[in-house]
Amino acid sequence: MSSFTPVPAVGLASLTTLGVGGAAQWFGTLTSVAHVQEACAWAGDRRVPLTVMAGGSNLVVSDRGVQGLVVRVAIPGVQLAWDGRVLRAGAGAGVCWDALVAEVVAAGGWGAECLSGIPGSVGATPVQNVGAYGQEVSQVIEAVEAVDRGTGEAVTFPLGECVFAYRASRFRSADRDRYIIVGVRFGFGREAGAYTYPDLTRELAARHVQRPVPGDVREAVLGIRRAKSMVVDPTDPNTRSAGSFFLNPVIDRAVAERLPELAGGEIPPMFPAESGRVKVPAAWLIERAGGHRGMVAGRAGISTRHTLAIINRGGATSDEIVDLAVNLKRRVVDRFGVSLTPEPMFAGFGDDARMTFLQKVEG
Known about the structure:
By secondary structure, the chain is an alpha+beta fold. The chain is built from 8 helices and 20 strands. The chain has helices spanning 33-46, 97-106, 198-206, 214-227, 253-262, 282-288, 318-336, 353-359; strands at 7-11, 23-30, 50-53, 59-61, 66-73, 78-83, 86-92, 131-132, 135-136, 141-148, 154-158, 179-188, 241-244, 250-251, 271-272, 278-279, 296-297, 300-302, 309-312, 345-347. A hairpin with a 5-residue loop joins strand 10 and strand 11. Helix 3 (198-206) crosses helix 4 (214-227) and helix 7 (318-336) packs across helix 8 (353-359). The radius of gyration is 20 Å and the shape is globular. The termini are far apart.
């Protein structure tokens, strides 16, 4: 018999960086693989939905709360050691991601320095293949450890079985509700990669860094992110968000070539993507469709420093956040015919028609 005993009626807003949403019908914090397996059995025995949250930095919770069992995976522990020219790391899913990056950087490892300052936990990073400034976590992941929700079996997925793509993985698509990630194994290098992201190269030049060590790049990235209010800071209201709300869309080249005409002759930044397609900044599209930094929509709004961050201006509801997101997506569709895809996860919204529109990918 399971010893897992969740707590009823726990508010979730305070467990997210956005700070909106209602309560979980049942809630539990999981600190071991065995605890995860017990929670899966508890929900299965009672035939109630099981919702998994990590650090709460990429989550929008409905004002109506979440039915069933909500669990927060907080498995601790970091093992870090050099193996020849590879710095191998194993981390529990509940470890703070940025704390792990700081340890890797301090040990002289390369490969995650551009991912500094990203909020949330280690276990969340493979789900959407987090990335920034030219790096993605999939470039350093060796394996993902998980528990099958249905069977309680512990399974390990080597890199090649994770099906990573731009802000995507099997854990967010085909197997979205099948596995709970409990740990991740990484391999970091001894040598720096090439840095080509314009913001980062400018920041390094401004700091007069010509041959950076990992710590130089980390500090440069943190500086850039702080300037955009993308490092969580309780004193900065712009950080009361779920991070970038929309992914940069990857579109056919023919669609991209029509954008300047639709934007009054202005040419958008374009970056090569898979299958001959191109990636266009979502912020550029939003701004030319009438959205802007500092935009106010009731108690929700857009950050004054970052167009992609929808913020809780104080006392916002999840409905206000979602309504603003729908408004911005509709503006971009109407002007450019490009459909933006939200980056955060959503919990408790059920069959809300706004969710259908927000999550639909056209073309």
